[in-house]
Amino acid sequence: MDYRIAVFLVLFVLLLSGCAEEKPQNKVDVQNNDVVPANQNNQQQPETFDEKYNFCFTKENVQAKDTCIQSLAVEADRDYLCDELTNLDSEKCKRLVWKAFVVLSNEIDKCNSLLTEFDKISCLKEIALLSSDKSVCLKITDFGEKNGCLTELAVQEKDLTVCDSVVGSAKNTCKFNSIVAIADPSLCDSFDLPIIKFSCISAIAKNTDNFSLCSEINDLSVKRDCEANTSP
């Protein structure tokens, strides 16, 4: 073999081996849209309050930083952090902090200390749903909101007896939605009006994709709608 060719082959092999040694590449943390430097993939997530607070200031834009600080304020029950927000509403942030504290602590009476009527009502409603406690719904003074709370609870718990505390025409709505959640078409017979009974069966058929239930409907319009929205 010619000497020059041999030298060229040796240099070519060395060049290829050098290219194989790639430099560490930065990776993108898809969840947070942050660039993670090479050799730092095992870096621990912030755990202490100070670490989480400082981490918020590493975010690449103001909106992301504000969102991070607001989440930390709610998590740590520190409403003063809301004053550091630039783009987000600090007062709304504080209401979120106060409401989260009241709901998680299950201190019902403190719901009344919240600033707006909306916050007070939603506070009681969340506690009722989290604790599955009908009596908390009954503490809501607004007639419509109280019925709404009871209806949501009845559906969540699939408990028709909760509807007994609903007042007025909303009682039928509570029963209807609860029966659909329970998914027992025989309970639809509790409605006196045929159109409501058949609509109840249709709603269960749609939710469970049970085409055969549509055959129990005698109202032609409701039956067609049922069959059109279920799989044969």
Model description:
With 232 residues, the protein is mainly alpha-helical. It has three domains: 47-105, no CATH class; 109-182, no CATH class; 183-232, no CATH class. Helix content is 55%, strand content 3%. It has helices at residues 3-20, 49-56, 62-76, 90-105, 117-131, 134-137, 143-157, 170-182, 194-208, 220-228; strands at 27-29, 34-36. A two-stranded antiparallel sheet has the order 1-2. A hairpin with a 4-residue loop joins strand 1 and strand 2 (34-36). Helix 5 runs parallel beside helix 7 (143-157) and helix 9 packs parallel to helix 10 (220-228). Mean pLDDT is 83; it is low at 1-41.
Low-confidence stretches: 1-41
Number of helices: 10
Largest sheet: 2 strands, antiparallel
Question: Beta-strand level of the residues, as a percent range?
Answer: under 5%
* Overall outline: elongated
Strand tally is: 2
Structural class per helix/strand content? mainly alpha
Rounded mean pLDDT is 83
Listing every helix as H and every strand as E from the N terminus to the C terminus, the arrangement reads HEEHHHHHHHHH
Strand order of the largest sheet: 1-2
Number of domains: 3
Please outline the helices and strands.
Elements: H1 3-20, E1 27-29, E2 34-36, H2 49-56, H3 62-76, H4 90-105, H5 117-131, H6 134-137, H7 143-157, H8 170-182, H9 194-208, H10 220-228
Antiparallel strand pairs: 1-2
Could you provide a short overview of the structure?
By secondary structure, the protein is mainly α. The chain has helices spanning 3-20, 49-56, 62-76, 90-105, 117-131, 134-137, 143-157, 170-182, 194-208, 220-228; strands spanning 27-29, 34-36.
